[in-house]
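[scheduler] slot 2 assigned
[scheduler] job type: sequence-to-structure, two independent chains
[scheduler] chain ordering preserved from manifest
[runner] begin chain α
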Amino acid sequence: MAKKWVAAGILAAAAVIGVYFWNMFFYSEKKVFTQSGEVFGNPLMGYAPSAWHEELSQDIQLLYVDVTWRELEPEKGGYDWESIEEENQFLRWREEGRHIVLRFVCDIPGDEPHMDIPDWLYEETGKDGQWYDMEYGLGYCPDYNNEIFIEGHRRAVEAMGQRWGGDGLVSFIELGSLGHWGEWHVNTSVGLPSIPDSDVRLEYILPWREAFPNAMILMRRPFKEAAEYGFGLYNDMAGEADSTRTWLSWIDSGGVYTQTGEEDALAAMEDFWMTAPSGGELTSSVPMETLMGEALDQTVALTRASHTTFLGPKIPDRENVPGYETLLENMGYRLWISSASLKPRFGGSRLSFTLENDGVAPFYKDWPVCVYIQDGRGQIVEKKKLDFRLSQLLPGEKINLSVKLETHVLKSLDSGMTVSLGIVDPMTGKDAVRLANEGTQNSERFVLFSGQ
């Protein structure tokens, strides 16, 4: 009899162990998720209106700031940070977790004679630029080859970097400095001198790389320096068919830069958007009601062909323009989770999920992707950063990710435990990216599993 009881005990123990190992290796919780059809903005993408706006819709996460040298340094070595930062609300945007597109400008044609460089610089450079009155407007074109001008520019950029280059607020720099509106072209047809040759242009590029090492730099044209340093590109004629197609042809084929006649000034950069952003501004040459109305399909097609991540400061009015959301839907990244599974493992759990990008561009920064385990009171009991570079997820692609958790999640779901995912903005230390999943309205952290 004793032997029978021992045998029965062994069988019972084996059954318990069998169930344990069955649960350990075969039991799992799985979910399939649905993508949301809602259109919304997200960090580092979308519309970028001027930073002085007081009222903004929630989808605006980028602001555009242009600074003239005259504004920046009214007295030699004396930088007017307070006026610029107050007008453009730097403190507000930093606190709200919104980011800035910056452009430094030395020549903006206007309605009256004026200079966009400081008076002291005008005197020190021997007044060797040229005043103009032409179809673009009135203004003053500096001599960009002047060594005093070049050295002063280097110091100004260095100062901006020391002031604004440390915390990620300035995330994109549209490389300006040269030409009308900082667009690296001058109207030579009225006798103005052309943009400098490559060696001199490089002196206007390198200071930005040193001063803003964490910002992404974009150039107006695909200069060979843009290809060499991995810059992005921007198009200030976005939506205008002929100009945008010409811009895209430069990107596809490179070639001659007509301002200087250099045959190899422009480089073929057809895949630049895979690692660096495409930006710009909607054109002023076509009425907004046309761009977003009868020509909307063309505007969207050109935006997609450009793999555009952001546009501004000229943007449509959300309240009055039906095409606003359509164009926004066709800019930047659109990340979502299509499926996830939880499985027990020795000493914890294994979370696996599939992350997809249905946008037209990558998310260009490697912000931390984190998994959070919270108890029934909402307290974080475990946080894991994934070993994964977010910038490598290209449009139309998906990636399967997995992470080992120390918590026995499946045992605790019934007590209200949740498993969620967030993408953290290093500037704020907070989850900031909204996934394009159903159920993520007004939420920057997506719940994968919950016992509630």
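[runner] end chain α
[runner] begin chain β
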Amino acid sequence: MNSVFNQLKKETVKVDLAGKTYFRGSLIESNGEIIVLYDGKDFIYIPMSHVDNISVSQNEAENILTPLTLPSILNGKQENVLTLDEMLNLSKGMYTEIYVANRQPIHGLIYNVMSDYFIFHSPIYKTIYISKQHLKWLIPFHEQKRPFELTDDELKVSSNNQFESSFKRQVERMKNKIVMFNLGEHSHHIGKLMNVYDQIVELRTARGNTILLNMTHIKSIHEV
């Protein structure tokens, strides 16, 4: 754990994220990339880039005890820094809840991890390509739990897709497809992907209007 957080280890803290979201839990791990909380039920992995502030809970009634055992993602990492890439790779194949956009978490599993994005399979949205920098949090499901109580066969990923090495190239690969950006956070995030010019993505809406999107603010993309 980063020395600046040593004094908070096992304390019950409130972590405020940018965007008026917060979590409360026992501080398990923290470093320059990841903070891990235990809220009494789940382990919550939060990239530090989205943390606005951290404070110690002053109400003893809200104290959350530290769990007796650590999750598999943290096992063996006590002496090393858990990076965002390691967290994502160690989470591959696990059923998880993640939050990216559109004011709601999505559920499924991480299928693969590339240089600056990862591939997530959702029973609702199917295959989603997600920029690493826009992942707000990740919560692994308990071992016996499945999203929507589906079976492993119902959740099985059957993808023969070839994935590009970078998020931009993956977006370019989807030219001439009907796509949804950012899980449809805004109405102009849905349309036919016409072209990619450096950091600008050209999208054509259902009524033929042209929308130019800044690649920096594209959090996710999936075909519809």
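[runner] end chain β
[qc] chain β: The CA atoms of residues 33 and 83 lie 6 Å apart.
[scheduler] slot 2 released
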